[in-house]
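Final report, section 2: Outcomes. Of the targets proposed, Immunoglobulin superfamily member 21 is the one most frequently requested by collaborating groups, and we therefore present its record in full.
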Amino acid sequence: SLSFPYCLSLIFSLSVPFPAYLTVSIEPLPPVVVGDAVTLKCNFKTDGKMREIVWYRVTDGGTIKQKIFTFDAMFSTNFSHMENYRKREDLVYQSTVRLPEVRISDNGPYECHVGIYDRATREKVVLASGNVFLNVMAPPTSISVLAADTPAPFSRYQAQNFTLVCVVSGGKPAPLVYFKRDGEPIEATPLPEPPVGTGNWAPRNLLHRDLDDTKVPKSLTAEGEVGAGQAPATPDPPRGLVAERDPVTETIPETVVSREFPRWVHVAEPIYYFRHTHAPASDGTVEARATLTWTLNPQIDNEALFSCEVKHPALSMPMQSEVTLVAPKGPKITMTPTRARVGDTVRILVQGFQNEVFPEPLFTWTRVGSRLLDGSAEHDGKELVLERVPAELNGSMYRCTAQNPLGSTDTHTRLIVFENPNIPRGTEDSNGSLTGHCGFRLVLALTLTVILELT
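The predicted structure is given below as tokens.
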């Protein structure tokens, strides 16, 4: 026999619906690549009556939720509706959202919100949600290798450091960047990160200038004693790169200066130093910069092939950019106009070389045996402009020196100036002043005036 309170509770439990339950989960996603098609899947289980499904894209750290999909059961009959609320029936649903071609901007969290009617109270809605993070990767879009601080003047008679910079843009996440020489990976010593707020940083404080065998002073004895005036020895710098010394040690006797590069005095195998940094871009990608620094040796580094290679999870194989260190050879010079006349503006331009030159050379123009037309001793740049050339420049010789840290070359060209029928001979000298017959008459008139005044 059953007691009255127990029977009453049993009757009440049979007459009142059980509260509905709802569980929501979103299937996790592996990282995807820009351009891929992605399907977001939201799974949920319930024994209640469906009300709605809403998908959100969350931005700004969760402060903004952008609605991207809505399903309202009041206006759709796609879902089963339970007729007997006293019977517990588990229904499993799945809502999917397909992104046909994902972009970097699609990266971030997504939420799936599900609402059902409560079994106990039809006016009440039970809500549950799940979330997933869509990680969108992007392969680098560009890679380039350049030389730092070039073009710039240098001394071919002193050892110096050289830095290659590899710039990789458009990748997400940051790529792995490394260098190779002649196809072989370079083992380099990592350099520390630059201090905050120092801007562009280069390891110049690690540089020094080693004496080579063309600069040994005549007073250097067999025992290695150097004559008076040499600075005292400084502490040894990092191996492979050396620190700045007093310029007094850089005195080069004119008698030993050669047009050829000396045999550099340092270790046979170069010591490389490597630094890697990255900076976020406004589009969500990363710009990576890698630098490789070593003491340049033109004897072994000329025509050496260096490559910067990039590994990235969005790439099926590494991407690379190659450069070959080469000294300039055989500059090609053009002159316009090809037939210069007195009063013309003449342009002499370097248009290229017999070879591919890297790094970019520095160009210096001089006039053999005299100064340039504007009075300067030399002019820097690929182009030399001579304004309103006078007849006196006919036959003048101009030298263009092209140089980079691996070597230099000189090319000469001669200027031939023809008469200009629009300008009578002798009416203008190199300074543009009047000469010839008109000038003589002016001088004669001035002289007669002075004589008359004196008398």
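The helical segments are 4-15, 298-301, 436-454.
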